[in-house]
Amino acid sequence: MQSHPLVLSELIARLRWLVALRWIAAVGIVAATLIVRLIGGISLPVTPLLIIAAAVAAMNAFFWLQLRRSGCDLTDSRCAVNRASAQIALDLLLLTMLLHFVGGIENPFFLYYVFHIIIASILLSAFATYVQVTVALILFGGLVVLELVGFVPHVTIAPISTGAYRDSGFVLAVLAAFGSTLYLAAYMATSIVGRLREREHEVLALRDNLQAEQERLRLAYRKLQETEDAKARYMRTVGHQLRAPLAAVQTLLSTSIEGLAGPEQAETSDLLQRAENRTREMLRLVDDLLALTRLRSVAVARVARPVALDDIARRVVDLFAAEAKAKRVSLETSLAVLPAVQGDPVGLDDLLANLVSNAIKYTPAGGSVQFSLKNEDDQVVIQVADSGMGIAPDELGHIFDEFYRSERARALVKEGTGLGLAIVRAVVEAHEGDISVESAPGKGTTFTVTLPVARKKSDHAAEGGRVDRLDDRSPEHGDGPLLRFRQQGAKT
Amino acid sequence: MEQAQGGGQGGPEPAPDAGREGRRRAKILIVDDDPDVVAATRLTLERRGYCAVTAANATEGEQKLEAERPDLILLDIMMPTGTEGFHFVWRVRQHPHAACRDIPIVVVSAIHRTTDLRLYPDEADREYAPGEFLPVQGFLDKPVDMGELTHVIETLLASQRHP
């Protein structure tokens, strides 16, 4: 039978336990002898008993040394089992000798044979256990019969001696009871132990399967990571490859349009203008896709550096001031001086630019946009509030989805890639921040982003960061654990 | 090819007369490996009264620099190897002739973000100390907005004339 390493170590542990018990037994024999003799005042053959105790101790010392020397090297359970068998057989022999000196069949302590049978059923196979039972029977039966016929002198212990050892009827009855008890006990114990062993094997097999599954999962995970990285690299390359010619086409178109001055060229000019607009749209899409890909494949821990958010915010405001003015939307700012945040400068720029750009885009003329930046406890709070068209409740759950643009948004503003908020979410997640939206149709929208100021550096920055990203998109996390949507009551 | 000078032709807004003389004389060197961008940019500049010379790579750029002595350089940073543009800038700034050394350079680049990051050279370019700023006078994103381009050029040329 193949020995599972766990089963083997369990067996050796049990052997050690047996050796430990035997020490106690040796001490017990000595103690019992002395107590009975000295305190009980009962006459006992002390010397032979003490010699037997010494023999037990000596034998145990041998077994103990044997275990210490090669206990850890046992690779075959059969060796351990054989040792156990030998020990138990010797125990039975010594018990028999002990019993002879304390009155043989007259001393009820022959019941102690049962302990050895129980131990045997734990350590040995069912068959071996029955063998040990037979050995016990032969030893005890032999002793008792020999005392009965007088071959071996009986040792009489005064208080318990009844002379029954000479009564063959009595001896037979006791031996019958003794034998049947031992066999039945062996049967019961080995049945239970057998079933336990079955369960144990099942559990071990399950455990092994589980470990194999875990290994397979780990490999699959790693492959997934590699695939994601390859995908991101590919997208990045394609994006960059698309960008250059698109930019060139747009330049060519705008230069052409500029040269078409006269009224007779108005038609051509119009068509070219439409072409230029579409090209601009494509460029924006490529830029957004590149931004998103970049965020998903670059671990922020790798590019993180101290970033002056207020500087970036001011630049973003400058960038959109003209557009806001042209639309007659007021852009108010409240930008506190902030401590440096550890983060990705490009990502944070994207975050602020997208939020402000959206706010202006979806606010009709005469409206207002409030952009605020402040420091609260251990985090930076960014808030972009607009008095624009707002977001309907059934749209709120989707606004951060890639390419999602609600019907109402599309109606108000024709162009848009639908990636702006996906980028915003990716940046927030990358910085372990939080984002919430408050909005109601016609009542405006407020986006609130909080970012932790001190980012913990992970031990395996690059790898750790990447694994985290994949976790964020695993099924249990659903839409992303960081987003809260609150329905808004009234907002002016 | 008509040069769109006046407003009546629907071209770019004319600059005040005082500057036109200076503008017509200003020579701009365009260094870019994309022939289409070169064609369009040259046309745009010439419409606005500038004189344009072109180079398709850094080597040709240096030749033209010596031969033509432009007043300003428009440089595409993402030329074939990716760092050619950086090297060109540094070589210009170390040119034996003082006049060449101080030529304003405007970098036009297909890296599509206007962030401080772009002032740091590529990590792969170990010759430069990380964080060292590139000694250029302006950064523009491709596709270049012609109005912005004109504005940047005029500002830089004006500051050259009146330091």
Question: Can you give keywords for this protein?
Answer:
heterodimer; A: 492 residues; two-stranded antiparallel sheet; 10% strand; B: 163 residues; alpha/beta; 6 helices; 15% strand
Quick structural gist:
The complex is a heterodimer of chains A (about 500) and B (about 160). With about 500 residues, chain A is an alpha/beta fold. Chain A is built from 14 helices and eight strands.
Describe this entry's structure for a reader.
The complex is a heterodimer of chains A (492) and B (163). Chain A has 492 residues and is an alpha/beta fold. Chain A is built from 14 helices and 8 strands. In chain A, α7 runs parallel beside α13. Chain A is rod-shaped. Chain A starts with a helix and ends in a 5-residue tail after the last strand. In chain B, strands 2-1-3-4-5 form a 5-stranded parallel β-sheet, sandwiched between helices. Chain B is of the alpha/beta class. The N terminus of chain B is likely disordered. The longest helix of chain B has 16 residues. Chain B starts with 16 loop residues before the first helix and ends with a helix. Classes of the chains: A alpha/beta (492), B alpha/beta (163). Chains A and B meet through α6, α7 and α10 of A and α2 of B.
